Amino acid sequence: MPCYRCGARQTDPVRGASPWQRGVRNESQVLICPDCQRLHDLDLDSCATCGSTALICRLGEIECRACGAVRMARTPEGFGESGAYVGSGAPPGLSAEVEAALNRVLGRA
After folding, report:
1. Residue 84 predicted with pLDDT over 90
2. pLDDT, the chain, mean
3. Which residues pair with 72 in a beta bridge?
4. H, E, C per residue of the chain
5. pTM
6. The dihedral sign for the CA sequence 86, 87, 91, 95
């Protein structure tokens, strides 16, 4: 998954904690690269209880890592109640992303 702001790809991690940060934006979990973390306006969702942006999204729930509040995630546009994409075809940009990944793995130009 690329950084949601700049599109940078996460590389294979070295030993230790990853410098990448997780966040929630528009009800979906996103990754934030170390360079973008330095920005003050990341436009992330915040906790309705404490205002923290330290949120994680999993299994249809959004949990605040600061205060522990948990709420159900709203279903993003284009996705059904199960979280599966229900639009026509694949999610936007997915085919290009898969093609690029295959080209990298198979060594194609």
Report:
1. no
2. 81
3. 61
4. CCECCCCCCCCCCCCCCCCCEEEEECCEEEEECHHHHCCCCCCCCCCCCCCCCCEEEECCEEEECCCCCEEECCCCCCECCCCCECCCCCCCCHHHHHHHHHHHHHCCC
5. 0.62
6. positive
Q: Residue 32: is it exposed, middle or buried by C-beta count within 10 angstroms (0-12/13-18/19+)?
A: buried
**Which amino acid type is present at position 85?**
Y
Using alpha carbons, select from 5, 50, 8 the residue that is nearest to residue 23. 5
In tens, the pLDDT along 91-103 reads 556 777 788 888 8
Contact between residue 6 and residue 35 where contact means Cβ atoms under 8 Å apart:
yes
Name the amino acid, one letter, at 26: N
Sheet holding 70-72, edge to edge: 55-58, 61-64, 70-72
Rounded Cα distance, 5 and 69, in Å: 26
Is residue 58 within 8 A of residue 64, CB to CB? The reply is no
